[in-house]
Amino acid sequence: MKKVSPWVKGFVLFHLVAITSWTLPNAAPPVAAGRMPAQGLDPFLLWNSRNLKDSPIRLYLFSTGFWQFWDMFAPTPIRTDTWGDARVTFGDGQSEIYLFPRSSTSPIPQKILTERFRKFFERAHLEKNQALWPYLAGGVAKDVERTEGRKPVRVELRRYLRVVAGPDEVQQPATGPVTFFDSAKPEALEESAP
Amino acid sequence: MKRAWIWVDRGLFGFGSPAAMCVFRALVGFLASASVFIHLLDWQRWYSEDGYVPLAMQKAWSGPLPSGFTLFGKRFAEGGTFPRIDLLGSVVDPRLSLAFLIAILVAALLTTVGLFTRVSSALLALGIVCLNHRNGIILQGGDTALRCCVLYVALMPGGAMYSIDAWRRAAKGDLSVALASVWPQRLVAWNCALVYLTTVWLKLENEVGNPWRDGSATWYPARLIEMARFPVPPFMNEFPMVRITTYGTLIVEVALGTIAFYRPCRKWALLGGVLLHLYIELTMNVPIFPYVMVAMYVSYYSGEEVEGWVSRMRARFGRKPIAHETLAI
Known about the structure:
The complex is a heterodimer of chains A (194) and B (329).
Chain A: H1 6-23, H2 29-32, H3 42-53, H4 56-64, E1 80-89, E2 95-99, H5 111-124, H6 133-148, E3 154-163, E4 175-182, H7 186-192
Antiparallel strand pairs in A: 1-2, 1-3, 3-4
Helix pairs in contact in A: 6-7
Chain B: H1 2-13, E1 15-16, H2 19-41, H3 43-47, H4 55-62, E2 65-66, E3 69-71, E4 74-76, E5 81-82, H5 94-113, H6 117-134, H7 141-154, H8 164-171, E6 176-178, E7 180-181, H9 183-203, H10 211-214, H11 241-257, H12 263-283, H13 289-296, H14 303-316, E8 325-327
Parallel strand pairs in B: 6-8
Antiparallel strand pairs in B: 1-7, 2-5, 3-4
């Protein structure tokens, strides 16, 4: 009977520890910062964060592609619809609205394709990802140039938000458009310079 | 201690029929084909310098991987960077990106049918990892689950059965199927359980105002217009159904990470999982993810059970059982 090599066994055990350690939640930030006493499983989670998650396990998972974290609909389910468009202005002063593909306005079979755009925009529009905005505006300009044959001189990225009301609340209409990036502003142009 | 290790050793590294792994290979190959095809339809926007995510944007998103790490309380390799598997990390020619995507699609199709399985599944895993590293901004849960699955498939003897490779061997008179160590299958099952258990843990983490605890969690996603797919009867998104689907989700997820490993309960836990994902698939636009998760359920069954099931199906449709002899090499 063939036997499994000890090297393979070592790898499998390491991998099991690696993915388990990485997918476990972190201790709450106040506990990690020492502002709150550790309770229940907090000491274990703190130890895991400091000793396992920050060990070569992190390098193994992120370099090979085995990284994973399962926070879909957790700790609280997503409750905000986000979508966006862009106002593009051409050299002759004309402007038009460029629409990012939207799931809600797509026919059902096409929704599979538009989900990527939803996920992309949901992340890209966030203030913490400001560094991405000049590239996104550049991508819009290139897309317009490709489809219309003329290059915009200005791109304004705009977002719309619709927060789902809770069971005892009244549903409010969506807010927007709110311009969150304007390629004509000097600071934006500086950021977009390669 | 020694007895515990023997128990672990047998469970994790024992040998058995590779049938379950071969079915898993075909399912994951098919889902990877579908996923790569979807990527291909918008390849210019996602994987070219003329799209939304040029290389510089991806670098701004994920940044280099810092090499510093802690081991036994001490810091090592501080200040440097560690490489990722990323063959597209410096590709600016759109023709190369397109060729790369087409090559991955071919590898995925070959993996599905089990032709040159060892090579095609390894190339598929390499391709998907590179694709995910090239543009991490568009990834969702289905991409992460699929990436892990293709990596596991690359570690499996996935072409041993139910494949063109096996058919070609049989055509030459070689009907043998070597017993295989089941550790890749166990990794899939463990990973699947981890997905469910850690998500429940995260869902129940906060005590105050937590909709998973007060039973209102499914109220919100059901009302997201950007995530909606097929319409469902209104009562499904009202109380008391919201409570039933909220707590039902948690119960099924816990079951999939625990009692699904206990044979008498397995069928019911997995059935609960299938219904959960079917409902998500019907109502919410979360492509690929439900299918990848359900494909992982195959790993809860032994190869012998899968072989028996295939034989019964063939008999039901009046076909002869597949002739092969399982060899304990």
